[in-house]
Amino acid sequence: VQLQASGGGLVQAGGSLRLSCAASGSIFSINVMGWYRQAPGKERELVAHITSGGTTNYADSVKGRFTIARDNAKNTMYLQMNSLKPGDTAVYYCATVRLGYGSSRNPNDYEYWGQGTQVTVSS
Q1: Are 120 and 27 in contact, with CB atoms under 8 Å apart?
Q2: What is the pLDDT of residues 5-54, one digit of tens each?
């Protein structure tokens, strides 16, 4: 599976962006897909993940502001980001969990990664 992340950009605090992650093949059978982010000098952290059944999980820092979704028919995952803050500035990556793995926050449990898309929030 190849993943292509897009939708990043420069936005003012309080603004919104929608990220997309397009997969080269079917995502129907992929158990868990997730969005990670990595800011300069910081470790990669899970933003949100979603199971094939639609169960979602969010980092505390984004709860109530971000929404993850997946469209299996379009082989695409999304991250709607509202009320953006300067602290959300990072490179955002999409990823798919390894075969046989369930929901996980550990990036080592994810096998395929997109190339990343930069999100910059100005104050």
Answers
A1: no
A2: 999 999 999 999 999 999 998 887 888 999 999 999 999 999 999 999 99
Pick from 47, 12, 35, 11: nearest CA to 114? 35
**Ramachandran assignment for 39, one of left (phi > 0), alpha (psi -120 to 50 degrees), beta (any other):** beta
State which amino acid sits at residue 9: G
Nearest 5°: CA angle at 104, between 5 and 84? 50
Burial 14-33 (b: 16+ CB within 10 A, else e): eeebebbbbbeeebeebbbb
Q: Token pair 């955002």 is at which residue?
A: 92
The tokens describing 55, both together, are: 């169960």
